[in-house]
Amino acid sequence: MNCAVPVLRLRRAKLIHVGTRVFGDEAKAREWARTPQPALDGAIPDELADTLEGLERALAELESLLPQVG
Question: Looking at the chain, which terminus has fewer C-beta neighbours within 10 angstroms, N or C?
Fold first, then answer.
């Protein structure tokens, strides 16, 4: 059984979950995840989530925004 698709869905769900906590709004989290981020060298967080290392990088960037948002 190929578990790649469920794993990718879980990674993206985690990205949106954390993004919603950071931005206080799921739509803002989804927009952030679909937009190239300068702090990630122009990478798109949703695409970074294809790998565990990329997901960790995107999550670290999101969490670094916590003190700045709100």
Answer: N
